[in-house]
Design a protein that fits this description.
It comes from Roseivirga spongicola. By secondary structure, this protein is α+β, with helices and mostly antiparallel strands. 33% of the residues lie in helices and 30% in strands.
């Protein structure tokens, strides 16, 4: 093979690799941590206040995960549960926003929030818990792995 043929083969290989990389990058899903991250950053001081409010509680909600029954539960102390006006629970998956799940915080008769996680994707999750008692807002994050 002479040097002219080697140059042509090198160009063909280069463009083959280049087009392969372009194809892969066009088909890769990139999701932001949050769609409105700039607004969330501006309001982060409020978020720190919510976290401090949880830390100031005498009794805090307790998180537990049942890996055999595939359930997550949050047990709220009686005093905290009675004062909850409204709340939200978000299951956040950092690798893909399409797996995120958000629901209302609804406690059963034993002051627990329970969620079936059998349909959740296996891996790392973050539970983001937000509630208010009418006067103060509270926020807690809990990392867990299924």
């Amino acid at each position: 093979m002479n040097w002219g043929n080697r140059i042509i083969v090198a160009f063909v290989l280069f463009f083959g690799v280049l087009f392969t990389l372009v194809y892969i990058s066009m088909n890769t899903e990139f999701s932001l941590v949050a769609d409105n991250y700039y607004e969330q950053e501006l309001a982060y001081e409020d978020q720190l206040t919510r976290i401090r409010n949880v830390n100031a509680l005498d009794q805090k909600p307790e998180f537990s995960i049942d890996r055999t029954g595939l359930k997550v539960s949050l047990a709220f102390p009686e005093g905290v549960a009675q004062n909850i006006k409204e709340g939200k629970v978000k299951f956040y998956r950092s690798s893909s926003a399409r797996h995120d799940k958000e629901m209302e915080l609804e406690l059963n008769e034993t002051n627990q929030f329970e969620q079936d996680i059998s349909e959740f994707v296996v891996g790392a999750w973050k539970l983001q818990l937000f509630w208010t008692d009418g006067n103060k807002e509270y926020y807690k994050e809990i990392d867990f792995v299924i």
